[in-house]
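Task 17 of the worksheet. Students: predict the tertiary structure of the chain below and write it out as structure tokens. Keep your answer in the requested format; marks are given for formatting as well as content.
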Amino acid sequence: MKFNQLGRSMVEMLGVLAIIGVLSVGAISGYSKAMMKYKLNKQAEQANTIINACIRYLNDLRIKTGAASGQNNLIPYLNKLGEIPEDMLTSNLSRISDVFKTEMSIYYHETNYLGIIYYIDASHSSMEQCINIITTAKENHSAISTIFFRNDYDDKDNEWSTRIYGDVGCTKNVVCLKDMQISDIYDRCSFCESSQCLLYITFR
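Model answer:
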């Protein structure tokens, strides 16, 4: 009798452990989804902050750096204006980073445009990040000039994507940011799915 009672207790214990295991897996999965949603919301907030700072100070930054040649780092200027969130700052101000630790640069080019570059590494979240950034940029389609991709971090054997145009360059013969659906954005972001890539957002 005691043996049978002990046997039942062990079976019950194993059942409890199995239930705990299932619940734990569900909890971890739920936590991971919640954390990803938090990070995507935070990234969108950070992207919107930077995009709007570039829009507000475009003319001032053009004047400040217009005499310089090449590509000029604008992060120090925007930081002095209090436009870079503290949690995005890095030690040397050559780049900033978002909640995913994805690095960004902000620059003014001598050919008269201001740009934001996202350096997106190939990872399990690269597609989600790319879609999130372009979806956020779409909210500012009237002020954005173009969005495009490059599929490598250096200038060797790189491939450039076709451009997505903001309102100024939007015609019937090009892809317009304001008209893009989530499926269109997904297709464009497939450029970053399997390799590191640069995502450019430009203003003129």
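Marker's comment: The chain has a mean pLDDT of 84. The beta strands are 71-73, 96-97, 103-109, 113-120, 146-150, 164-165, 175-176, 197-203.
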